[in-house]
Design goal:
heterodimer, A: 437 residues, alpha/beta, Urease, subunit C, domain 1, TIM Barrel, 5-stranded parallel β-sheet, 19 strands, B: Rossmann fold, Rossmann fold, 4-stranded parallel β-sheet, 40% helix, binds zinc ion
Chain lengths: 437, 308
Amino acid sequence: MSAAGVPRKRNHDFLIKGARPLGRESTDLLIRDGVIAEIGSGLSSAGAGIVDADGLVALPGLVDMHVHLREPGREDAETVETGSRAAALGGFTAVCAMPNTSPVADSAGVVEQVLHLGLQAGLVDVQPIGAVTVGQAGERLAELAAMADSAARVRVFSDDGYCVADPRLMRRALEYVKAFDGVIAQHAEEARLTAGAQMHEGDVAVRLGLPGWPSVAEETIIARDALLAEHVGSRLHVCHVSTAGGVEIIRQAKARGVRITAEATPHHLLLTDVRATGYDPVFKVSPPLRTDADLAALRAALAEGVIDIVATDHAPHTVEDKECEWAQARPGMLGLETALSIVLEVAFDALGWDGIAERMSRAPARIAGLSDHGHDLAVGAPAHLTLVDPTARWTVDSTSLASKSRNTPYAGMTLPGRVVATFLRGEPTVLDGKATR
Amino acid sequence: MIRHLLSAADLDVDRATLVLDTAAELANLASQEVKKLPTLRGRTVVNLFYEDSTRTRISFEAAAKRLSADVINFSARGSSVSKGESLKDTALTLQAMGADAVVIRHPASGAPHRLAEWIDGRVVNAGDGTHEHPTQALLDAYTMRERLGRIAGLRVAIVGDVLHSRVARSNVSLLATLGARVTLVAPPTLLPLGIERALGARLRTSFDLDAVLPESDVVMLLRVQRERMNEAFFPSAREYARCYGLDTARMRRLPQHAIVMHPGPMNRGMEIAPDVADSARSTVVDQVTNGVSVRMAVLYLLLGGSAK
Ligand SMILES: [Zn+2]
């Protein structure tokens, strides 16, 4: 599908010289008409743009199942265009946009608007996620089938930011989306256990005098939803698992054959609650940063596949929403431009390049129903790919990120791996580490 | 001396002792009818209060004025603060005014830490959310030393709503620094889970006030808000008072020399019976008096009285 309704100039041919697909032996890749036309050494093609990929690793274009692009409604924090640019620079070719916008993406009209904004930006495929309930209010089902049948072809539904708390409503939502092979992505938080919560309930919260967000508030919902999904035979996806206990419940559910998938964020794989010391709200996020034990459990589960995917929960916020008291600050962190580097830092030894492609491209594309994405680099496959310099190290500078917001928790950190080029449907969105538009 | 007083943990044993000794000297001068010292003449102290706390504000104001500082009261009510000005913008305003020290009371834990990043002047935490209230702990320690002659080795029971208490957190920290042995007593719902591990190895907890009282040199009662029962922390004010309130009968379980403290304002009949509050063991009035001396000492030391 070429950008429906948005005219584009004809695809240029590109010859990528000497890339290493999934870190294997180097080869050339010829891209023509949006697909991979040829793979082999010593390829040539008259008139093709040459991309010197000597020493670079080629991965299938990354897929992020969980981003907040803030448009419509909070264009001061992010727009579909700026978020798309951040995604492309992070090596992504598809992102799923959460519906907690203003208005909420709970109707065919709003999801089509977001889809259209994504096509206009043209830097990454923006797949809208639909709200489960009207206005994300948790009371009535939104018109899920209308969103599924819309031009946006929505398959993932979520009230993210809020939990679908009512168990009967959750059961109905899980059942209803079976009709179009949909999946409910749950933000697992028993809100009655987190009223006023500001950070992980634990030793650091006791010292800082901040009300705690207990791990059981997440675990109790994951357990309930796993049972509901089992009962009705539906697909459940658990957003941003943050606790060792949550991992255990998912492991057991999978062992019983429940159709459950789960994501972990880069920040929950790298950072812990001690970062809250000093009260800088750039480290405030929901669910909160947890402990070393949780972090270790998440890393092990990611290696094992109990956690299926990495998703960023990219959540831009304005300076005013972060340069304030901890309790006043909005929760959330930037993630798109740093995700791959952080996964390389925490999980490369366990996953290798193939495992990273699985957790960050193939599996998220599968779960989200993005049939055009998540394909290994093979002749005839859509040319969604990213080229990564595995030896480069870079220092995160919040002011030089493409996102409109600055709330990265990684400022000043030096991280491995740099995205050099990204191709979306055969067109470069990033070249020489810079966005092409 | 330290740059800011944000937490009782900012004070090691030498610095904490210096504050208490300085407070004693200043109290001594005051009793010799030297009501006002010229030490901070020309310096500006801002009281930045985002919560109504007349007693704390007046105490800081009196302390600053006795040191001849210029005092500006900047209260959230009736100012730009209530019109939604951010803490950062307020900080920039205070910075432009040349505030030498800002005394801040704020409902959000950590607000003084944020403020300290945005201004050059000294910051004194006068109570932040459910985090800390370090000058309260200093005046409590001062009062213990004055009444019992020492702090090291004292057995101190802190009783009540520890979960929501900034006074408890600061006292646990400072008393550990000064060598006292603290036992926190509360219904389990009002003790943070894992507080012994979080706040220090020497800390003990108990759910049984009657058992702790005979082994206490000091019993410090924390204010317990009646509204907490609406969040199921305890069933009723009556049941709380019956299990954890200090009445005359219970007070008899204390050793002869033991004192009863309360940071105020008191809920008479809830955590403390009226006749206990007014008894000779009660240090409530001393605590108010000592509060001014201790806050004078803090301002004096932070603003370059003697040390660097
Ligand atoms: Zn969420």
